[in-house]
Amino acid sequence: MKKILLLIAILFSLTVFSQDMTKFRLYNPAEDAGEAIEKAVKKAKTDNKHVFVQIGGNWCVWCARFEAFVKDSKILDSLVKTDYVVYHLNYSKENTNSKILAKYGFPQRFGYPVFLVLDGEGRLIHTQNSAYLESGKSYDYQEVVEFFTQWNRRSLDPSQYKEQ
Amino acid sequence: MRIVIFILLFVTSLMANSQGSGNNLYKPDDDAEYELSNLIKLAKAFNRNVFVQVGGNWCAPCLRFNNFITSDEEISSVLNENYVVYHLNYSKENQNMTLMEKYDNPQKMNFPVFLILDTTGKLLHTQKVMDLVNSLGYDKTKVIALFNDWKPSAIKPVVDKTKDTQ
Predict the structure, then answer these.
(1) Each residue of B72-93: pLDDT tens digit?
(2) Whole-angstrom Cα distance, residue A4 to residue A2?
(3) Which residues of chain B lie closer than 8 angstroms to A124, CB-CB?
């Protein structure tokens, strides 16, 4: 009986900890990504936000991990929602979106996911190597907080940095 | 006598630890805009990017980092082949606010903070120093990866290829 319980416990913990990739469907290879980014930029401009582009695919475990990590934290989730319009830019066999990646200076050299921050004009203001945000098999909370706060719209407002 | 020797030892060890010329690495009196624009011209001529170390002589980690990348042969060869280097001063004497503003106020991060500019002077990347460390200090692999990820050839040849197909 004890053994069965143990087995059940192990199985249960495995399913909890392994990312359920079958339900990870945030990336849409069929989408016209150029158009979608344009739309996101426009929305960012009206909402006074930046665009947070997560480049990856439904095949990408670390992309799913990052998504879960942010969604699991009320603070991280609200940091994103307050300051960013989010877009998931697909990179997969079906659609590599190579022209768009070329436009943003080949961020794929950092592996996936890699994040871009665009301003309300569509200007690329930051490319984030997500390896810098990792910690063990997940992400580092403090690093992710810093990333979101150091590249939001407020952080680029010159009036924040008067000469001391 | 013993005390004198002890003092001598102490003084020489202080001098050794202070990284020699490192104390004048940053130049608050520089006309930084002028110096940097000259370096950008140089970078263009040699097809390199510009690696700007923002900090000051007051900042021990800034001096240590510079020492780290210049004393390691592998790092300095990647650096020297692909970049020209400028030490942009940020101190009480001179905060270089015009340049700080131009480059989206990198002083919001801890010092040193690094900028990578392309051959036209456009800001390509702002790098936090904390991303380049391990538990022992600066991480050689991470520093080399940074220089490789942002060197001109990491971006340019492929750019030309896609221009042809468009």
Answers:
(1) 999 999 999 999 999 999 999 9
(2) 5
(3) none
